[in-house]
Design a protein that fits this description.
Distance between the termini: 51 Å
Helix content: 25-40%
Number of helices: 20
Strand content: 15-25%
Structural class: alpha/beta
Bound molecules: adenosine monophosphate
Radius of gyration: 24 Å
Largest sheet: 7 strands, mixed
Number of domains: 2
Strand order of the largest sheet: 5-4-17-16-18-19-20
CATH architecture of the largest domain: 3-Layer(aba) Sandwich
């Protein structure tokens, strides 16, 4: 491991030199004064004084050499269409979108909320924002009105960019009514809503507020919009993620550090070649989509594939047909997508010419060994796990094949990536634990370039949430349990907090509980994540009804359960909808009134409930056990 070890050691022991070198991978309009400003720990300001622009690095700087190369390829099996944009065409579309933003008063530092399906205009919108120094906040299209309203109030966008509808597995999913309801609920009112009309779902525009993209695009013509040179520390975007409270956290990312980190990862981790094709099946609403559908591949001069569709429609061969068609060199997907494919014949892969493909990367949730070896064997290509979070923006753990092709270790995403000083710490003392022992996966200050700068509008929450887990030392907590071996390979053992991971989507159980509590028939509720073969975890809700008759018969329970699921779906979106709603007359709590979530979760997974010395009433746990058996 000599090469990797020297590389990683240098990245954490001489971060200034290491990152100064990596900074040369991107264009700077004005060089930075220093690599790292350490003056405000635990905050870290990377490349202060430097002026740059994300859109310039993703698009403009390639024009001279790659103008005719496809930059963005859109494939939709939902509406059976595909479109390709060269770097020159992407440049033009982004300038048009930027001109529309400017025309309606969006300027540097203003927020723009993007609530869109997987269509090229969503990518134009993101790039247009960073082009003019506006800050985008993409909200996943699967979120519903309440989730959207919370984000509108937190980000206070000047403009919202949306669309009439998305499509999921061939069914039209209207966006406009959800958006209208969200704006109605929100206290903050955006000045304009720019609507990309796909012609999927008729809608009535609100005069004075709603703008039509096609008309606006025609009106701005071919106006040139130069990149605004912004400070390296200028926020590029906010991306909301779930935590332990009901209120989502706005992860704020910088500009210069992010570009440098992504450029580094494209070479050292993903081994992409400029001119090659990168096909990531994630969604632009998630961090993987931000980093590895949009910014990473484009910064690296690759062709990126934007896919609107599922992995099994029209059949389980679709991803591999697209990979073949576009000669994908790098693919990135999720363990859940692969587990879905596992139900089908591997001929779907074997029949395709995948000679261009070098590696398949998987991330977002634990990758089980059988799934990893199934897909590796079927593809005949290396499958590379990598572990990271919305907060970090790029991998914390992985295999840096561009530096040294380390042997992967089954069940482990790999070793620490450059700049990450990873430690496994004792939950109570905060002291490092020896190899082989479980502890909290923490990262020492400074977080490397590209990681979150702060919680949007709430520096205190950033420090209190992430840097205050241990009394003895100020380190960043990932809120994941981990165990390291002698060589530094880390295995992830689940979350230390109440966050669950359903098919790679991170959900706060508190958020789901708050939504369920809003149903008039609910007195109390506990939501836990239970192991699920396909999705990794699924949300299970235990509800105490106000009126016991609402749960007295199987029919009554089924009716109330359906209403509760519908409530969550309508408020938060289908992603958050619990898979099961079970009824009890009390919840297991400690004598001080804290919910015993870990015990409830253990019972859901048919494990022993653990330490019950503080349990107030043992019959409550019996009820959980009983409900799991007797209620379907
Ligand atoms: P998100 O911020 O939505 O990307 O979720 C991040 C969380 O997903 C992490 O804190 C982990 O709990 C989990 N996670 C992401 N990638 C992996 C992986 N490769 N292996 C295990 N867990 C992962």
């Amino acid at each position: 491991m000599a090469e990797y070890s020297a590389y990683h050691r240098r990245s954490v022991e001489q971060p200034q030199e290491f990152w100064a070198e990596k900074a040369a991978l991107i264009d700077w309009h004005r060089p930075f004064d220093r690599v790292l400003d350490a003056g405000r720990k635990p905050f870290a300001a990377w490349f202060p004084g430097g002026l740059t622009n994300l859109c310039h690095n993703a698009v403009d700087r390639h024009l001279a050499t790659r103008g005719a190369q496809p930059a963005l390829v859109w494939e939709s099996t939902e509406v059976d269409r595909s479109r390709s944009y060269s770097y020159a065409e992407l440049h033009q579309e982004v300038q048009r979108m930027a001109a529309i933003l400017l025309r309606h008063g969006v300027g540097q530092g203003d927020r723009v909320l993007i609530y869109m399906p997987m269509i090229p205009e969503a990518v134009f919108a993101m790039l247009a924002c960073v082009r003019i120094g506006a800050i985008h906040s993409v909200v996943f299209g699967g979120f519903a009105a309440l989730s959207l309203a919370t984000r509108i109030d937190d980000a206070t966008p000047k403009m919202v960019i949306s669309s009439d509808a998305g499509s999921r597995a061939g069914r039209v999913v209207p966006y406009k009514p959800l958006l209208d309801e969200a704006i109605e609920r929100a206290t903050h009112k955006p000045g304009h809503v720019l609507m990309v009309d796909r012609g999927l779902q008729p809608f009535t525009p609100l005069p004075g507020r709603d703008l039509d993209y096609a008309a606006e695009r025609a009106a701005v013509g071919d106006r040139e919009v130069p990149c605004a040179w912004v400070e390296a520390t200028h926020p590029s975007y906010i991306l909301y993620t779930s935590g332990t409270t009901g209120r989502p956290k706005g992860v704020q990312r910088d500009t210069g550090g992010y570009a440098v980190a992504l450029a580094t990862s494209m070479r050292d981790i993903f081994c992409g070649s400029p001119g090659g094709t990168y096909f990531c099946t994630s969604d632009i609403g998630w961090v993987v989509g931000h980093s590895y559908i949009v910014y990473g591949p484009l910064i690296h001069g690759m062709t990126t594939v934007l896919y609107e569709g599922t992995p099994v429609r029209p059949d389980a061969g679709i991803l591999w047909r697209l990979a073949e068609k576009h000669r994908a060199q790098v693919m990135f997907s999720s363990p859940t997508a692969v587990r879905v494919l596992k139900r089908f014949d591997t001929a779907f892969m074997r029949e395709r010419d995948l000679s261009s493909l070098e590696r398949l990367f998987l991330a977002g949730e634990p990758l089980d060994e059988p799934t990893a070896s199934w897909i590796a064997e079927a593809l005949g290509k290396p499958v590379v796990d990598n572990y990271w979070q919305t907060e970090t923006g790029w991998p914390i753990l992985g295999i840096p094949a561009g530096v040294q092709a380390l042997e992967p270790k089954p069940g482990s995403p790999g070793v620490a990536m450059p700049g990450y000083k990873v430690g496994i710490l004792d939950e109570l003392s905060g002291e490092p634990v020896p190899p082989g022992q479980k502890g909290v996966l923490a990262i020492e200050w400074p977080l490397p370039p590209g990681c979150m700068q702060t919680v949007w509008g709430d520096d205190k929450r950033f420090v209190d949430t992430y840097w205050s887990t241990f009394a003895t030392r100020q380190v960043y907590s990932t809120f994941d349990w981990g165990v390291a071996d002698e060589r530094g390979y880390v295995t992830i053992l689940g979350r230390t907090d109440d966050v669950i991971n359903v098919a790679g989507h991170r959900l706060g159980t508190r958020e789901i509980e708050e939504s369920i509590s809003s149903h008039a028939a609910v007195a109390e509720v506990a939501v836990v994540g239970a192991a699920d073969e396909l999705k990794g975890q699924q949300a299970v809700a235990f509800v105490v009804p106000r009126d016991a008759t609402r749960a007295a018969s199987a029919e009554a329970r089924a009716e109330l359960a359906a209403q509760i699921m519908q409530t969550v779906q309508a408020q938060l979106g289908a992603v958050a909808r619990p898979a099961r709603v079970l009824f009890v007359s009390m919840l297991p709590k400690t004598r001080s009134g804290k919910l015993l979530r870990r015990s409830i979760q253990a019972l859901c997974e048919q494990r022993a409930p653990g330490d019950l010395t503080t349990l107030e009433d043992p019959t409550a746990l019996e009820q959980i056990r009983g409900a799991l058996v007797s209620q379907p």
